[in-house]
Amino acid sequence: MARSGAAKASGRNEAIHKHLVQLNWSVRGFARRVFAHCQAMNLPHTVAPSTVARWCSGDTTPSPALAAAACHVLSSALNKQVTPQSLGWPADTTDIATESLQYADLSHTTRTLARLWEIDALRDPTLIKTLFFPGVFGLASREALVMPPDPEIAGRGTYKVTAADIMLLEDQTRLYGALDGQHGGGKFRAVFAAFLAMHTVPLLNGSFSAKAGKRLYGSVADAVLAMASMAYDDQLPGFAQRYDLQAMRLAQAIGDRARIARVHIHQTRLAAAQGDRREVLTHARSAVLASEGAPPLVRAYSAITEARAWAFNKNPEQTIAAVVRAREGFDRAKASSTLEWLSWFDRFELEAQAAWALAGAGLVDAGLLALKEAEGMPCERVRDRVELLITGAELARLGGDFAVYEQKAKRAEEAARTLVSRRLAARITRLTAGQPLGDF
Question: pTM above 0.85?
């Protein structure tokens, strides 16, 4: 590796030495911590003390992935952002696959989202092929739940952000959310990503007051979570996980517990897709905790997610109790407390999720009653209605009515032909093959 400019000037990397002295770390201890972080991220790197000694002496600079890992370890220990350039290393590590798994400050979030949107818009396979990493979300979750909002959220850039700019972002998020429900997550994700890269990155780097910043960061979080949902539906858990992490940071910055709960609900689905029953319940319970003090509709959404998590863990008693809490919360919700990003969560959706939770818990009669309530769902919600058919087929199978099972399975297969949803296609394949559906 080539020498860095800072290293050439002094003969050794004084910035690293200063940090190690402050932390009372030896070179060996620093190497051990960087290596442990690489292992946690499933990065194929060994980090020997001799390698780190050469960083400290200024003889070499690390690869982009190792630079990102070293900066993450130092940032976490020092409780401040340590960048590669502050250590005399190249500023552009280009290792977005690793950096997008880090939970850092708002400037990091802005840079990360810009790269993720760019990659998603171009359908670049580099990150799409990157796997989901279990355990990455734990630190972010704890910080978001216990830390106060950021004290400074105003923007200092050159572009003056207007209310019309933010309204356009919100309108586009609603539009692509509706298109996602009609056509599936794989249809328009790249188009939405291109819009966000072009329109939203300048806003995040622009000039705005703290009041406008609160609205802007919340609206961007909604857009990011819409992208995460599309990636999840397209069976791209690595992308979805990275989007969720950055959305969590935006929600934490403005102290929005409702949106923090929403991110945990997203993570519940991702954990279920990996088959991790314990993590599913952990995230669902975190959503319930985050939603305390939030509007009743958010608490209802969190409670029905908890019901599904208990069903995934095969606990019928806790499932039905959570369903009851969700219904009670929904009944308490007032129109005035409805959040724009949760406007789709109506009685039909509540009962559709309840029906699936009850089916997963083996509570067939209760599940059929909930399914009947959900069947008034509007026809334009194509994917949701296919999900209802799958739920109906599963309840029929559990109840031993195989004629209804086959009928609903066939209808689900036919209705899904216009959808671009790998997740739904996989579910239907299992359904039509007569396999039990033990998913979330």
Answer: no
Q: What is the mean pLDDT of residues 429-435?
A: 91
CA 249 from chain center: how many Å? Answer: 11
Q: Tens digit of pLDDT for each residue in 263-284?
A: 999 999 999 999 999 999 999 9
Cα angle: 97, vertex 121, 274; to 5 degrees: 50
Q: CA–CA distance from 115 to each of 127, 282, 345 (Å)?
A: 10, 30, 31
| pLDDT of 6 | 39
End-to-end CA distance of the chain: 47
Closest CA to 262 of 225, 308, 214, 237: 225
Compute CA 390 distance to the chain's CA centroid, rounded to the nearest angstrom: 25
The dihedral through the CA atoms of 122, 126, 132, 138 has a sign that is: negative
- Total H helices, total E strands in the chain: 23, 2
CB 89 within 8 A of CB 60: no
Going by the DSSP 8-state scheme, the letter that residue 149 receives in this structure is P
Q: How many other C-beta atoms lie within 10 A of the C-beta of residue 46?
A: 9
Q: Contact 236/186 with Cβ under 8 angstroms?
A: no
Secondary structure of residue 156 in the 3-state scheme = strand
Element housing 328 (H / E): helix 316-332
CA trace torsion 387, 279, 180, 253 (10° rounding): 150
What are the two backbone dihedrals, phi and then psi, of residue 201, each rounded to the nearest 5 degrees?
Answer: -60, -45
